[in-house]
Amino acid sequence: MARMMPSYIDEKSPPGERDVFNMLSGGPEDWAVMHSLDLAPWNRDLRTEIDFVVIVPDTGILCIEVKSHREIGFDGSNWTPADIRRSPFKQASDARYTFYRKLKELAPRFRHVPVVHLCIFPNAFFVLQPNMSVAESELMDSRTFGNCSSSSAFCYELKRRMRASINADGNLFLPGSPLSTHALDDLIKCCIPIQKRRPDCRESIRYREQELEALLSIQQKPVFRLAEYNERIIVSGGAGTGKSLVAFELARRYAESGERVALLCFNSLFGSWLNRKMDAVQPQLPNLVVGRIFRVLTKMAGIIPPENLDSDYWEKVLPLLLEERLTDPDMKAMVAFDRLVVDEAQDILSRPLLMNCLFTFLTGGIRDGKHVLFGDFQNQVLASRDMLDQSLNRLEREARPARWHLSENCRNYRIVARTSIGLSGLDDNVYSGFLRVGGSIGNFDIDFYSSDIEQAAILSNWLKEFRKTGYKPEDITILSFFSDAKSLAGRGMVQGWQFASLWQDAINRIHYGSVHAFKGMENKIIILTDVFLTEKGFKRDLFYTGMTRSTESIRILCHETSKDILSGWMKTGGSGHE
């Protein structure tokens, strides 16, 4: 019996894969077979899958692509049926070269091991055409597969094709001696991170799901049930209602089912945090692509944006460049996702060109694709609300999504969230309740300054107080309504403290940045500085965005010329000054 990883095949796997798996499982005992590898992390996150990697110690490595269809055709331009969007031979060849390239990098001692590919059509008759540039050793159709009466006969045919492919390639040579058991184990270890099905991790998956069950609120749990019966969903909710937790877990579950999934957001800092959080999850999921929308899409499309670009490039020029790349059918097939999960979706939906571009990366698009969008569509709209409303109307009209609303705040103390709502002039019904108990007047404070020197002194005193009560530097984030270069912390006005930009991965430092940059994130202590309300066009909802980042306490430093305005807002929550 061959060494199979995993030792069983999921019933949901295509029938052709199950047939090939069963044949391989009866192979020689020194053979090792890995089922369902996703090489996307090794190939710019492009769709790069291998159904089986077969290690034959005395011959080499075989990468197999299986197509289960009963009829497969090619007219010189297009494949049939239509769900075969790329040449299976090109797909297998690309995967083979990606596999070999990364294997050489990870384990140079295997660089002389020959790696070849093969397409198996267990149920379909197929005749190679002269213009396809495909060797006979690269195909096994239903005629040969059906004539293999046993695993031994099947494995004999595989080995014969491997040798033919190796002999036909002047750069490949049969091994001088078979791979040892130790070498075989080392080779397999290199592949574990890209294996989609990991039965050895089922216990850790169950444990994580039990932990999550304890964390989720009664209001959040139905989203997972909703996702079982609906392919398109919009989940709305204010800041701190747990949207990101649910989005993260939902994306992970989709990926564990075998789908190619993207979990994307607009904010750069939040995208980096999502990446780190997903990297810590075991087992790793190579078919789950996570991060900021621009980073993910440009990486797959092979676009390197110039430096020092303005928002017009990212929101108008780049989407058109990306869509142009996708006019190549082969590229479109390689970048396509089976499922799209978007957090902080309001930032993308309020930019129509970017929204259109994103859905070209999803199989089925807006109308027929599988997507779940999470967002605060009422209170955290930092771009065009008109554009957002138009996009939501379009989604409602074309996608007809199921909807769910989260209204219980599970991040902030009541005093922090209520004050943020009042200062922002929002409706009192943003939250239906607060899950966190406790909190008092001590969790909120505001002070006024007349100069940068005075503002720096007040900030320094607050930092001393937090240090005395046991808070570490990394527990505190200073946010400004200005850019970093214009902010109090960014200009180096506060002496005696070590600061670092939000973009710096520094320990034992107090991080600072803009309210916009920290959107989607959270920390124990949030201090808002440089609040100057007489500035023309001041957006009150920045208070809501900034203050709701706090899990414990909030402090605000406001210029004394704005004292009357701010005091009025705190009393009434009205919209007296915009």
UniProtKB/TrEMBL annotation:
This is NERD domain protein. Pfam families: NERD, SLFN-g3_helicase, UvrD_C_2. Residues 16-122 form the NERD domain. Residues 233-351 form the Schlafen group 3-like DNA/RNA helicase domain. InterPro entries: NERD, P-loop_NTPase, SLFN_3-like_DNA/RNA_helicase, UvrD-like_helicase_C. Residues 514-554 form the UvrD-like helicase C-terminal domain.
